[in-house]
Amino acid sequence: VIRAKAVSAKEVDSGNDIYGNPIKRIQYEIKQIKMFKGPDKDIEFIYTAPSTAVCGRLLDTGGKKEYLIAGKSEGNGKMHITLCDLVATWDSLSPTQKKSLNQRYQMGCECKISRCLSIPCFVSSSDECLWTDWAMEKNNVDGRQAKHYACIKRSDGSCAWYRGMAPPKQEFLDIEDP
Questions:
Q1: Contact yes or no for 46/69 (Cβ under 8 A)
Q2: What are the pLDDT digits (tens) for 34-57?
Q3: Is residue 78 domain-shared with residue 108, that is, in the same domain?
Q4: Looking at the structure, do residues 98 and 142 belong to the same domain, yes or no?
Q5: Which of 9, 34, 50, 168 places its Cα 20 to 30 Å from the Cα of 118?
Q6: In the listed set 40, 72, 90, which residue is the last one of a domain according to the structure?
Q7: What is the pLDDT of residues 100-137, one digit of tens each?
Q8: Which domain, by its residues, includes 61?
């Protein structure tokens, strides 16, 4: 799990399929800003399929957009991502998600988050946090819990949702007359 910018992209061969045809991948050269979880070595390149039709992820290579990327690391400065991996622009994260990435999520590494797909649902042990966004917010994977809470281990060994930073009390629209 890293925070990074993509600075360039090129199509590369990554071996052959079972018929001997070359397999193409997009190789993104990245500038890693921070490693949240992964190998000791910085990630230099991210590889993905050449289009979303074959589960590839497209990244902006202007070097301006920062991404939060969770993928599969080879430990040698290379990472692979697909449509199934978490890739989000840093600016799209809530203040709680940013703060939790930097300070809180490591407190929950021993906790298990269990998805609740329909009500009622229950935890089976004290080291679980029940994630209800899907069931309570019409199949929303980016709901209130995901944006404003972190599952952390408490001093008694149990796990619970922690609300670290409240969202604004009301929405403001900044409009100026021309």
A1: yes
A2: 988 888 889 999 999 999 988 999
A3: no
A4: yes
A5: 168
A6: 90
A7: 887 777 776 788 888 888 888 888 899 998 988 877 76
A8: 2-90
Q: How many residues in the chain?
A: 178
- Give the global pTM: 0.71
Q: What are 2-41's pLDDT values in tens digits?
A: 999 999 999 998 888 889 888 899 999 999 999 888 888 8
Residues 60 and 123 in one domain: no
Whether residues 57 and 137 share a domain: the answer is no
Instruction: Give the number of domains in the chain.
Output: 2
List own/partner pairs for 69-77 with CB under 8 A and 24 or more apart.
69/1, 69/2, 69/3, 69/4, 70/1, 71/46, 73/38, 73/39, 73/43, 75/39, 75/41, 76/41, 77/41, 77/42, 77/43, 77/44, 77/45
Examine the domain organization and report whether 78 and 141 are in the same domain.
no
